[in-house]
Design a protein that fits this description.
It is built from 21 helices and 2 strands. It is mainly α and about 625 residues long. Helix 8 runs antiparallel to helix 9 and helix 15 packs parallel to helix 18.
Amino acid sequence: MSTAAMHAEHHHHEEHHHHESFISKYVFSMDHKMISKQFLITGMIMGMVGMIMSLLFRLQLAWPDEQFSILETLLGKWAVDGKLDPNFYMGLVTIHGTIMVFYVLTAGLSGTFSNLLIPLQVGARDMASPFMNMLSYWFFFISSIVLLISVGVETGPASAGWTVYPPLSALEKAMPGSGLGMTLWLVAIALFIVSSLLGGINYISTVLNMRTKGMSMNRMPLTIWAFFFTAILGLLSFPVLLGAALFLIFDRSFGTSFYLSDIYLEGVGALENIGGSPVLYQHLFWFLGHPEVYIILMPALGITSEVISCNARKPIFGYTAMIISLMGISFLSFIVWGHHMFITGMNPFLGSVFMILTLIIAVPSAVKAFNYLTTLWRGNLRFTPAMLFSIGLVSFFISGGLTGIYLGNAALDIQLHDSYFVVAHFHLVMGSAAIFGMFAGIYHWFPKMYGRMMNQTLGYLHFWITFITAYLVFFPMHFMGLAGVPRRYYQFTLVKEFDVWMDVNKLITVSAIAAGVAQLFFLWNFFYSIFRGKKAGTNPWQATTLEWSTPEERIHGNWPGEIPTVYRGPHEYSRPDREEDFFPQYIPDESDLAQTETQKTKTAPNESEVEETESASVFFAAIKRVFGLS
């Protein structure tokens, strides 16, 4: 046990019995479990806002010549006579992408489950710094408010796409959405990055320093490995985006020329800016942007590992290989950003390097996909809603990942870039897969969060409608992209060649509306179950990890007495020497007790050295397997 963990153990009685006011317990809480709920509820609200925005611009794409009076009621001057304004259409696309990528799939997913599970699954009273944890949430909350305010400003929200490429984002007079809305977008993202960095430092510190006795690195659940690598990615990549945003603010407000050069603006004339390059911004943005894909995806993959293993009643296939694949994905994600920039005039040799590295990253991704399928193979499957959403994630991960092979090829990407093929690819492999991982986590750990069970029938209904409609929305977009249909166009009926896709656009929009309705079933199920759901036991899924050893009353400090000792790995299911089909890692057997007694009679080595030795052994054993060494 680390020094920090022993210190927390020494003071746990004081933590349990001090009185908390409503404000300190529910608003400015420093309990990681409450903070995880705050991240979840805020992320759900932002997700609903993002979904409504997508439905509004889907109405425009499906029926561009129709007038919807409800739009004028909702949007005022941005939908005069019920017809969506083109500038506001771009604003909706921009804010929708920003919300879903950063506020739902990054903070909503990682912020929720890293906060909930890291202390519980490694055996800690709380995060390494509860105060920093509280600050992380409130920076995220304030950032969310600033972004929502930007939608309502007089000149309209930011309208340069969620990537906010200059010069549209760097010149306040370029278009209506380049004004105050763009400035507020940059402020919101800066606050969001501060939140992410505070959280990431906390997650890494907790995993490294707060593990309970026996919880060596090679006994950690794959969820913790995924959160750990995700935090490292965020800590290394988000500062680059912060620098890019600061340069953009300087160009907008202080006359610098980081991204501007040789610009002629209608009504203004030639600008004095010279020497900058918008391609510099793309390098900075995508250095964060591609790790961001895995910052989003890896927590969902970690959740899926736990849910599939638990509900297949089998140990996860290839535990060590799964860890190595996470390492490989984390490393490679930093050196493939150039595949987003094949059409920027990149040197063909450099493009070929990025192309090869991009195709190589498919290898660790394939390892994870095959290991999920092998874990499912001949398992004693329990099709809970969480299990269905996890299987759905695997489906999206494979189908969306295969299209990434096309986009990773420079010759093909030049043709498909900025088409609907790209929209289909990342909405499947990143958007849908990560959302399904988030739903899987909610259904699986809802009993631990709220002490009650969600309704399974509504869960099944939620899954099947969402799964089917997600494919109906995004799969046809591949064919639109292959036909050359560009993304972000306001109205396709103005181009004869694209008019043939109007029926497909209508199918996509109707499916999107159906998917939106399915989320209402989820919302009802979620909030009703908090208050009226069937009470859950201590371990309703008969799982093996440490969080299910905590009492049902969810106390601050997690365990009322000593934190349990860990005796084995996290996925001990269906062992032939056990009557029950699960063996929690915190319950000793006779050999564990005998080993403990033996250790008591000997001089105990430094526990941190033992854990470091065990951690090193699993790493070197993995390297030997990879290279076939004896």
